[in-house]
Amino acid sequence: MGVRKKETRVPASRMKIAVARVLRDEGYIAGYDVIEDGKQSMLRIQLKYGVRGEDVIHSIRRESTGGRRVYRKVSDLPKVLDGLGICVVSTSRGVISDRACRELNVGGELVCTVY
Hints:
Elements: E1 7-11, H1 14-25, E2 29-35, E3 42-47, E4 60-62, E5 71-72, E6 86-91, E7 94-97, H2 98-104, E8 108-114
Antiparallel strand pairs: 1-3, 2-3, 4-8, 5-8, 6-7, 6-8
């Protein structure tokens, strides 16, 4: 059992906003918005829980880091938990999920895996 917060805030960047968009589109978070304060913008993420209060996101794992980039062809993208989870991939078509990568037949940098 976790803390069950309704939302969390992190410093905003274009990559974090793109990952939040993919997580919202795939149903892992309820929503997000960017709070502008003139200096560093903040990304406010509304978390989502199941009917009985269970976590929707059980694990989120960063794959590419600043010192080690991980690139995959569309045929080499992993199936997270046999398709129950997703990979977030940065492609030439933007930051999208592995399902969208397979539909568009594009590979790219593996950003993170979520389930």
